[in-house]
Design a protein that fits this description.
The protein is an alpha/beta fold. It is built from 12 helices and 21 strands. The strands form 6 sheets. A 6-stranded mixed beta sheet has the order 18-17-14-19-20-21, with helices on both faces. A 5-stranded antiparallel beta sheet has the order 1-10-9-5-6. A 3-stranded antiparallel beta sheet has the order 2-4-7, with no helix packed on it. Helix 10 packs across helix 11.
Length: 444
């Protein structure tokens, strides 16, 4: 009996009718003639509840279902989850579904409703957006079945517990891979750079088009074909590309629910994939107060998977970054001249000046690109109209912080260090454009 009542729940309609009956008797206190009809209404209501209860628990509720999850979830993207339900009985059911979502999603009011026809099948779907990496545990599927009266509901729990890992954004990686090789790239912000440098790998002789380098005209072929022909060379391949990620305290700042560290992790996966598709070598290094994980640049089979697993396991640290230790790590790990994307952040000119000697030393040996972030919230504050003196002060401080960021980028550029100052949500796009620019200019 305890198990029976454990799975019995009263619906909103039950309480609505009950409230109407209470109101009826309140009015009957002043109008006595309404009291006797109220008694009949209570008896009728009790009878309907009893019939509904017997209908629900008179036989087994034959409902089957399962939850369909992706093999892995993608960080910060909308991931689809599907629920399949099947009615094995000849009865009609009004269904309310309460899915036990992972605690990381912090979703406590999730439910869906549908009508399940006799022997019918239904497929539902909903989207989730995970904002942290790790293992997400989905619990049971709670099915609350009601008859057409909708006075009492019976809970049926489906044991479909499952765990799934949330990896750095696989969807973003595939999207940018498509954009870099397709004709729609320019529409989505990927810039097609005209190659300025010259490699030594000859590819083919092709017809001259406006914008080609006239120095590469092949005069013998031009004479034979009676039109301008030029030599086309392949881009340099097998160049080492390293993503170095700062995991220190400064990278824990959140924007749109995602930390700067996770933005950097997503971008590193995107760049690594694009570099491997361009036949370059991709590598990874993480650091904070100590050196974290390291993946030597390579383009072997399984390199991207190794980078993905390494990025998945990164944990932030609440300490300051040790740039001197980073310099020694690059000396020991990166033996040949490489293209390095350093994902970090500077909130003051003083913080930049502390790291500047190390950045200059790394830039002498490699092509260093320092990637740091604009504060989009400060930008919105600076554009907001101030309504009082406090608002004016806040706006001035916000504008000063924005100008400090621009000054830091200018300081790095003056010292010959490439920079990307970007909004967190535009990080992957701007990083890819910089990579394509470096490749087209033959700088590495």
């Amino acid at each position: 009996m305890d198990g029976l009542f454990k799975h019995t729940f009263l619906s909103l309609r039950f309480f609505a009718v009950l409230a109407a009956l209470i109101l009826w008797f309140c009015v009957a206190f002043f109008i006595p003639v309404m009291f006797l009809p109220g008694i009949y209404l209570v008896i009728m209501f009790g009878a309907f509840v009893l019939v509904d209860f017997i209908w629900l628990f008179g036989r087994k509720v034959l409902i089957q279902g399962n939850r369909i999850l992706p093999h892995m979830l993608s960080l910060s993207d909308e991931n689809q989850v599907q629920i399949m339900l099947r009615n094995l009985s000849s009865r009609f059911w009004h269904i309310r579904i309460v899915d036990e979502l992972p605690e990381q999603l912090q979703e406590r009011n999730f439910n869906m409703e549908l009508e399940l026809q006799p022997y019918g099948n239904e497929r539902l779907s909903y989207m989730i957006r995970p904002l942290s990496r790790g293992v997400y545990a989905f619990g049971r599927l709670n099915i609350f079945a009601m008859s057409r009266l909708k006075l009492v509901s019976r809970r049926v729990q489906l044991p479909v517990e499952e765990e799934v890992k949330v990896y750095p954004s696989i969807m973003q990686m595939k999207k940018f891979e498509l954009y870099t090789i397709s004709k729609i790239a320019r529409v989505h912000g990927i810039k097609k750079m005209r190659r300025i440098g010259l490699s030594y790998e000859f590819e083919q002789i092709k017809t001259y088009v406006r914008g080609d380098d006239v120095r590469q005209i092949n005069w013998k072929s031009t004479g034979r074909n009676q039109q301008l022909m030029i030599n086309q060379f392949e881009d340099e391949k097998s160049q080492p590309i390293y993503n170095i990620i700062d995991k220190s305290r400064i990278m824990l700042m959140p924007f749109n629910g995602l930390s700067l560290l996770d933005y950097a992790i997503n971008s590193s996966l995107v760049i690594s994939n694009v570099a491997l598709k361009k036949h370059d070598k991709a590598g990874l290094l993480t650091f904070s107060d100590k050196i974290g994980s390291a993946v030597k640049a390579d383009r072997k089979h399984g390199q991207l998977q190794e980078i993905l697993e390494t990025l998945y396991n990164q944990k932030e640290r609440d300490l300051e970054a040790n740039y001197e230790l980073l310099y020694f790590a690059t000396r020991n790990l990166i033996k040949t001249r490489s293209l390095i994307f350093l994902y970090t952040n500077f909130e003051s000119m003083y913080g930049l000046q502390r790291a500047l000697p190390v950045l200059r030393n790394i830039n002498r040996q490699h092509l260093l690109i320092v990637v740091f972030f604009e504060n989009s919230e400060l930008e919105s504050i600076s554009r907001t109209r101030a309504g009082d003196l406090k608002g004016v002060y806040t706006q001035i401080l916000a504008e000063q912080a924005i100008n400090d960021k621009l000054a830091m980028a200018q300081e790095l550029n003056n010292l010959g260090i490439q920079t990307i100052l970007t909004r967190p949500e535009d990080l992957s796009l701007n990083t890819i454009n910089k990579y394509l620019e470096i490749k087209s200019r033959g700088m590495i």
